[in-house]
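Schema walk-through. Below, the input block comes first and the output block second. Nothing else is stored per chain. Lengths vary across the set, and this one has 381 residues.
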Amino acid sequence: MTAVLQKRQPASPPPSIEAIAQRLSMQAARRAEDLDDDETFPAEDIAGLVASGMMAAPLPEALGGRDLGIGRVGVQQLATVLSLLGRGNLSVGQLYEGHVRALKLVLAYGAKVQRESAAADAHAGHLFGLWTVDGREPLRLGNPTTGGKLVGAKIQAAGAGYVTRPLITAQRSDGRTQLVLAKLPLGARASLASWRAHGMRASASGTVDFTGFEVDRAALIGEPGAFGREPLFSASAWRVAAVQLGGIEALFDALRLDIRQSGSRDNPLQLARAGEAAIAVETARLWVQRAALMAENPEGEAEAKVAYVQLARLAVERAGADVIARAHHAIGLPGFMRPHAVERLTRDLETYLRQPDPDGALTRAGAHVVAKDTPGAALWR
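--- output ---
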């Protein structure tokens, strides 16, 4: 018998991280309408992130990750990934952005053993998150040196009951803020009853009561006060803006589709609205791209990074409001009625655009601009 040698086919390269995000975004978009209800959570979408390796992607290669958000290329990839996920479903984008931000903070401030432990949890599929909003009283840490019991709660916590590795802020007895990485089982200590928001219903935002939760020394991440250290504290807001950009793009696409399907593609007023919306979308995209590269540039000036990102987040907010207004004017009453896609997209976007302290962000950035005697053309170089 003549043996037939099978020619080994070369292994196909793994899909790019952008291609993975594009696929997950399209799947999330198909499920988004069914998730638009109180106390829901995009479980299938998060499972897709886990199965595709996206939970560990923000880790450096040395820890088994894909350098997502690390270096110039990694930063551009992360901006694209966040926008794609936000385009599919803003709640999914918000949850993944929180996962990325918590991991980045542990990598920045944690000890070697803490970084390795967090990396192992990310590879195991744990969802991280950053919870900073306190209930009526600040969340307090019993013993600021060795750990102890926590007293208090976190509210507006995205992924409450589903985030099993929340990075939380706790107040020490000396008034300084301590980052604590808690390990929670699914469903523990969480209630979604308080989240009856206009939009972002699928984010599973709610209250998590940490009273009596035992914290050991290994859970204390970084030095006291590290969380508020600039530029990492404020400049990381570009990632939220990237998710918002995705929501703006989704609304823009829905607006264009409605104009085409309604037979008004030759109406000059409708075309003008589409053109104005296109300007807003591209403006937001350019701000996000530049803010991402500026914020993550290790050689940049800290104050300039913070100021630019603050302006970027406000520019994206304004762009989102512009596209919402154009969509409402173009579509009219049907755009306020279910199940029109624009109805849900605008509710989610209006809710997610409401980020903390916009006035403070604007005045701080304005103070930086006024203090500099650099020509405007070179202000951000």
